[in-house]
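Format notes (please read before filing issues)

Several people have asked whether sequences and structure tokens are stored in separate files. They are not. Every record keeps both together, in the order shown below: the sequence lines, then the token lines. Line labels are part of the format and must not be stripped during preprocessing.
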Amino acid sequence: MAHDPADSAAAFAELGRIKLGETDLNGVLDRVADLAQRTLPGAAQVSITLIRDGAAHTPAHTGEMALRLDAWQYEQDHGPSLEAAAQKTTVYVADAAGDDRWGDWPTRAAMCGAGSMLSVGLPIVENVSGALNIYSKSARAFDEEAIAMAQTFVRYAAVALANAHLYDTTAALAGHMQAAMESRAVIEQAKGIIMGERRCTADEAFAILTKVSQDTNRKLRDVAATLVERTQRG
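Then the structure lines:
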């Protein structure tokens, strides 16, 4: 299968130009799926399988055929995408109508219009695995060159996705830390107000806040924020 090497180089360069601050992990997944469909030989539709804590889903896809065949695999708990993801390997279904490795896969493939499929394991981080799934409407659509191209594409994509996952995780952690710091600040303000009004210690003021929180079934931060707001208005 002839393929212009310049297309490959452009695809890899585009993966490297993804700016993490301008999109999230789902945005990167969409970019990877779209780029794979546009540049990989034989690709009619593309999807990405992700497995986290044993649960598989398809966060990005370029067509209904890919989505439906992915979903069937997750329902049956077996299939080429799951095998590629679990074993971090490449699974090639040369003739979907005649491949009986996964039960009634041929029937499902025929119903959805898939002639062949290539699934390449996509390692991301230690607790998240996945696969890039490339569907073709014709049988034997992927030769050795196409398979090698897909495997190289996945190596570049894995770096982009690992970086995006790390960026999302770090951003979420930073957000949690910021929220915790803000909660601590408002609780300290409320404690100061109670100490001034009741001439009590910091521990006693905190105990008062905690009791109100328990009695009203409200978060401690919300109780503290209400007290601070009421004092500021008064």
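For reference, the curators noted about this record: The chain has two domains: 5-172, 176-233. The first helix runs from residue 5 to 16.
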